[in-house]
UniProtKB/TrEMBL annotation:
The gene is mshB1. Zn(2+) binds at H16, D19, H149. SUPFAM superfamilies: LmbE-like. NCBIfam families: mycothiol_MshB (TIGR03445). Belongs to the MshB deacetylase family. It comes from Corynebacterium occultum. This is 1D-myo-inositol 2-acetamido-2-deoxy-alpha-D-glucopyranoside deacetylase.
Amino acid sequence: MTEDLNGYRVVAVHAHPDDEAISTGGALADLARRGAEVTVITCTLGEQGEVIGDPYQHLVADHSDQLGGFRIGELRRSLRILGAQGSFLGAPGRFRDSGMVGDPAQDNPRAFVNSGAAAVELLAAEFERLRPHLVITYGPDGGYGHPDHIRAHEITHLAAAQTGVPRVLWAVTDTADLQAGLASISTVPAGWRAAKPEELASVDSSDLAITLDDHAYHAKRASMQAHATQVWIADGSISEVNPVAAIGSCDGLVLWALSNLIAQPLLRREHYQFGAGVALPEGATGLLDGLSRG
């Protein structure tokens, strides 16, 4: 698609560094290339994450607890690749990664799950400042149940309702596309594993599918690769963070994994569901279809 999107403003609200790339990287890169003003608001530093590769293992929360600061740099590189601006909700470190369900990190008063009305007020102020036509976040389940993703959904809808954001969309993974991609994996990298049935979260339907052209696809791949502590791309490359190469094959798609080393295909389509505001028109092919630039 080549439509000029100058004058449109898009904000993506994400829980941790790397979510902007994994969930929405293709669409954000495409929107930015076509002239839209794209901003990513990240709610935490991702302090509770694990680390891929040996050199930086001691950054994790239960050792030196320096991972959050390191991930700021990864996020900056990712945003440059996508052509997006970025900010942290409140300020870097205002809210802390809550970890997965049951993580004791949620007892920390700064944990994002404990952010209360303050997070809504801060996000509403950002919406007032940026005046987005479109806001993208997760669905009510956060995509896969992560407490911080669920909280990001909650504050996004509250802040959007307060400030009159024209449209909110949710980034989702389509079951049919995911299963087709998983079936196309012919070689799983050494040390990785194939996904078990229904292990990866997905939805049966969406309201809009965005096919990524080569620019958007490769930008998404590169932005994911910028998060080297969190994402491993099976293309034979190595980095300072992860000096071990992984090689796999997937019928023309890129293979990647998180620290759980479950092989996943980097799909050629991103899917979105309608969340709030102005509905997508029938036959919509773009995230901004039906919205005025005014």
